[in-house]
Structure formats: C-alpha cells, structure tokens
Amino acid sequence: MDPLVRRKTLEAGKLGKMALEYAQSLIEPGSLLLDVAEKTEQFIRENGGLPSFPLNLSINNEAAHYTPSPGDTKTFRTGDVVKVDIGAQVDGYISDNAATVEVGNQGKYSDLIECSRAALNSALKVLRPSVEINRIGAAIGETIESFGFKPVKNLGGHGIKQYDLHSTIFIPNYDDGNRRRIEPNQLIAIEPFASTGIGMIHNGPGGNIYIFSGTKQKKGDPVIDNFNTLPFAERWLAKIKPDYKEYLKKNLFMKQISHFAVLKEHRGSMISQAEHTVLFDGDSVTVTTL
C-alpha cells in the first residue's frame, strides 16, 4: 500500500475512535441528540479531519441511519439503547466505528450491549490475510446466539474505499456460505448487530441523511463541492444553502439525491451494535479504530 494512503487511513481511524469516545461521553438523560451530533462532528473538524458521515444516533429498535434534523428537539431518555455510529475522513480516506450505550446505565440491557461487543471481538480473532468472509460471519453469529440473541441477518459490515463508505463487499453477521476471501490492501468495516427480536430489519421513515446518487450534478455546486460522494446531513445542507428544503425536494424528485431510511426491527425489540474498521495491508491486519 502507498505509504501516504496508509498514513491517512490510520489517521482517520485514530480520529474516528476519538470521536466515538467523545460522543458517548455526551449522552445522558435529557441531553439533546442535536447537541451531541453537532459537538461530535465539530470535534472531528477541530482535530484535523471531516466526518465520514453524519453521527448516527439510532435508538431502541432502530439499527441505523437516524441523525438529528435542523432544530431537532429530541432528547435521550433513561433506558434508551443508543447506537452511536461515527467515522472520520482525511482526504477521503475513511474510518467507521460504532458502540452501543444504555442511557442512564441502569444495566437492563448490559447483556445485549456486551453481546455485539463480544461478537466483534470474536470476528477480530479470526482475521488474517485472505480470510474467507463466511468465517467472519460465523464468528459473529455464533457469539451473538451464545448470548441468546439474534444476529441481524440483513445488515452487516462493508468494504470501504476513498470517498466510498459502502463499497461492494458485504461482511455478514452469520455464516452465509460466502467463501470469497478478503483481498490485500482492502479496508473493511465489521459491524455486528444483535437483536432481541427476529433478527431482520426493515426500512422506516427517512433519517435526515442523504447522498448524491445521480449523474447530472454540475461542478461548482457548493453542495457537491462540500460533500462529494459521502453521506451528508440535512442540517449540514441548511448551513450552506438557505433554500435547502427546495434543493432537497427538487433533487430527490429528479433522483439525483437519495434519502437514507432509518433501519428498524419490529416494535418492542432492542438492537445493539459494535463496529471497527480493519485494514488488510499485505501480510498485516490492522484495526484502525482500536
């Protein structure tokens, strides 16, 4: 791997880890999701990077893709199970990591939270150059089931490339039989999701996160210049474009922008998540967010 690319990838990992720890420290009963998101993303900027994507703060049966909207008044409540998912990027070289916290730390969901964390650690233990993808999934799924929970089967980890948060490779949360091997110089995110429900998610309403998906964007558009091909928050757009609502409406209609749906399990279930970014560099395997 090019030494400069490796250095920037490792820098992004270190900063992503710091941001995740910072975000978790801000979560307490009564605090605003908006404040946590804005402070965490600003923390990344002040430390020499940019967010890879908006801070995801997905609660209870939500698995992913909720970030506060402009002026959002939603607060954390005691007992909420919050998936905190954030990453940093340095010149488009990305990290992605996540953890789960129970607001108020009452311990009601400590087993569920430990379950996804243990599953991630199990996955890391089987990593080696050219590891088969289904071995990673098997380590995750077996660990989650040993705790008495369900791995979420239609969510998983993913490949990462420069300015591409979700490249084609998929890392399952169970043994899906895929014997494809991880290739050298590949960056992946491993992210176990454990559920008290059936282990399947569905699309809910939009979570205030968007990404350019069309082919007709014009150079010089300040939105494209700011966000490139990475996900962005509605509240980020509001800060650079006064008519942001019309801009979104127009580009969604023209299919130039896509809206991320909040990913949900069935009502009443709880989900936990843990995640690290891993670099396969020749004969070495490095967890960039550890």
Q: Percent of residues in beta strands?
A: 25-35%
How many independent structural domains?
2
Give the low-pLDDT segments.
none
Q: What is the SS-derived class?
A: alpha+beta
Got a strand count?
18
CATH architecture descriptor name of the largest domain: Alpha-Beta Complex
Q: How many DSSP H or I helices?
A: 7
CATH class identity of the largest domain: Alpha Beta
In words, what does this structure look like?
The chain contains seven helices and 18 strands. By secondary structure, it is α+β, with helices and mostly antiparallel strands. It folds into two domains: 3-204 and 266-287, Creatinase/methionine aminopeptidase superfamily (Creatine Amidinohydrolase, Alpha-Beta Complex), CATH 3.90.230.10; 207-260. Strand 5 and strand 6 (93-94) form a beta hairpin. It starts with a helix and ends with a strand.
Summarize the structure.
This protein has 290 residues and is of the alpha+beta class. The chain has helices at residues 3-26, 33-46, 110-125, 133-146, 222-227, 234-240, 244-253; strands spanning 50-51, 56-59, 62-64, 81-86, 88-90, 93-94, 97-102, 150-151, 156-161, 164-172, 186-190, 193-195, 202-212, 232-233, 257-264, 271-273, 276-281, 284-287. The strands form 5 sheets. Strands 10-9-11-17-18 form a 5-stranded antiparallel sheet.
Features:
alpha+beta; 290 residues; globular; four-stranded antiparallel β-sheet; single chain; Creatine Amidinohydrolase; five-stranded antiparallel β-sheet; 2 domains
